Amino acid sequence: MKVVALVSGGKDSCYAMIKCIQYGHQVVALANLMPADDSVDDLDSYMYQTVGHQIIVSYAECMGLPLFRRRIKGSSRHQNLSYRMTAGDEVEDMFILLNEVKRQIPSVTAVSSGAIASDYQRLRVESVCSRLGLVSLAYLWKQDQSLLLQEMITNGILAITVKVAALGLDPTKHLGKDIGFLKSYLHKLKEMYGINVCGEGGEYETLTLDCSLFVNARIVLDEFKVVLHSSDAIAPVGILHPLAFHLEKKAEHLSLSGIDEASEISKEKEGFVFEVQGDCIQSCEATFKAAAEVVEADEVAENRVHIARTKSDNTFSICFWLQDSCRTSAGLQEDLEAVLRKIELELLGYGLGWENVLYIHLYIADMNNFSIANETYVRYITQEKCPFGVPSRSTIELPLLQVGLGSAYIEVLVANDQSKRVLHVQSISCWAPSCIGPYSQATLHKEILYMAGQLGLDPPNMNLCKGGATAELEQALENSEAIAKSFNCSISTSSVLFVVYCSTYVPSSERHKIQDSYLKQMRLLQLDKGSVIQVLDPIFLYVLVPDLPKRALVEVKPLLYVPEDMNVTIGTEQEHSCSRMPSYWGIQHAHWHDSCIQKCVVQGKICAVVLCITSELLVKICSESLGGDQDNGDYQNSLREAQMERVSRFCIYLLDKLYMQNNFSWEDTKNLRFYFPTSLGLPLEALSLMFTNAINELAKLGQRIIIGEEPIFNLIPVLGAGRSATSMDDIITCELFARKS
């Protein structure tokens, strides 16, 4: 990509440019924000470093690139973490600056910044990039600061301190010193006082005088004075004010492809400095109209939308799908719009909106239409509608049309409060895959971390890693771990449930390697954690699907339990005796029932269950119910509805028993999914009726469940599912998650 680099003069913004070039991008222009008054050194801005701004003008000549500068007219008016366009805010100065760069150099598609740990700065850069249709590149984001500092020094960045404001840093002693000289002292201060060695906490600021990007000349600071801003006895604040400097031409012109090639784009602008004037241009704001304004309501399509809903009042899931749409639908866009409109209306009926949605499962009939799905999705779900953070998302291709459904099927997890914590990083970085758009990496709500589906993407370039399914899985788990660390947890110790989607592009002979790779990766992560007091024992569900985004071979969807107090002992529930469990439909407890079940229960908190009904278990279920031996061939070759009725009752019986044993109720259910293979040969309507009847019968028999007009479960057509990657051939697979309010 062609990149404009935001430069403050500091070491971080310069090293971020070096990383951009290392990852194959071309830096074609520089952009800098400076004080309105030349005599002012430090604005003490929340967003911008301005100390040393007198020297930045030389960067154009040193690098042979056009430099665009703007005087900061705004102030930090919108101080909430997530930024919204605010007239008079200093962020709007960045918008005007980058908008002018884009106008003069239309080939620019990305913006580089040196953000390392500040969400405040990153979110504002991402907001501006989103409005201008640019990609944010933040290759230093979340990197270890000690390693970063050493990398900068090793890569030849000569940067001196121009501001100090921390315990242990003395303006008279430490200003004007280069980072290589100060490195060991900074690490000593880290050990003594916990400072950030890269200065991310405002401990110090730097000015780069030379680096590999300066292909034409280096900056020599001839004279400066120290200005004391605060004489605080503990942590005095001082800045370096440059009085004289000159450029020293480099004897040999260094070859740096990312710079040299970029210069060819606009030779006439090489070394050119342009000061950007003007006020905020409202017309440049990329806004989306409300969905109701964009598309007229299609009552016919909406009448075909079917709904399922769990009964919990505070956090619940709602599913929306179209029945028999393949005979009347014009395609994915029409179906998806109908479903999204119905969701909005349903949420409105509860007095809620998109801001209340925690997670979205987006199922589509053809992954070739993924771009159409995204274009439609972003018209309804926007950051403006979700001020507390956009939902996390998983997108999967399912055989929807084969079972008579429409091209779009959506499940949303909804909360009736605003206590969620959302992680949404849109910048491309080395940390984890970016989420460019209105979907986030993860959402934490009431101690449950719902993580977006993770592909085996290499974060810096957002390409699938090479090496097949096992390599993709290992990378996906690394990405998941990076996200988990942002919430002070680990997938190796806090995971409750892993759903692993496997594409049909993975040869059946290779599927066993997926499981082996997972176990290897988990062992490595646990070794990295060292001695851990408490580790949850997660459960697994493997689902075979036609295709995944980017033609990925695997996608991982972890669910984690993150207690507010990490020191509280996690206890598993003491189960009640099976002898006290009621018997329904003539089903008596048998020891082999346990072979169907995987579960992860945290006492008084959560209950996760995966229930697998294989063809072998089907024989036992039907034989037990009928009270006699049956011909195995009959069951394997032809599944009659009578048999599936018994299976549906058996599943509901086991789930009810698990709830009773672990002191949970059906009202605690957050989601209940039944996966069925298209090879089952039963109409979805018939299967839905069987489970509905079983639940209704349970309600009459035990009065432990409240029923309503909509079913409390959703049926998901797949190519296969099971508890291992090598045996995704269940007749029915159930995934249940419950949480105490």
Can you tell me about this structure?
The chain has 20 helices and 29 strands. Helix 16 links the parallel strand 21 and strand 22 (539-545). Strands 16-17-18-23-21-22-28 form a seven-stranded mixed β-sheet. The model is unreliable at 260-266, 282-297, 626-630 and 632-638 (pLDDT under 50). It starts with a strand and ends with a strand. Helix content is 30%, strand content 26%. The longest helix is centred in the C-terminal third of the chain and has 21 residues, at 641-661. Helix 12 packs parallel to helix 13 (370-380). It has 741 residues and is of the alpha/beta class.
Layout: helices, strands, pairs:
Blueprint: E1 2-6, H1 11-22, E2 26-35, H2 53-56, H3 59-63, E3 67-72, H4 90-104, E4 108-112, H5 119-132, E5 135-137, H6 145-154, E6 158-164, H7 171-174, H8 179-193, E7 204-210, E8 217-230, E9 237-249, H9 257-263, E10 273-275, H10 291-294, H11 299-303, E11 305-309, E12 315-323, H12 332-349, E13 357-364, H13 370-380, E14 392-397, E15 405-415, E16 421-423, E17 442-445, E18 448-451, E19 457-458, E20 463-464, H14 468-485, H15 491-494, E21 495-503, H16 511-529, E22 539-545, E23 554-561, E24 597-602, E25 606-613, H17 615-626, H18 632-637, H19 641-661, E26 669-677, H20 684-702, E27 714-718, E28 720-722, E29 732-739
Parallel strand pairs: 1-2, 1-4, 2-3, 3-10, 4-5, 13-14, 21-22, 26-27
Antiparallel strand pairs: 6-7, 6-9, 8-9, 11-12, 12-15, 13-15, 16-17, 17-18, 18-23, 19-20, 21-23, 22-28, 24-25, 25-29, 26-29
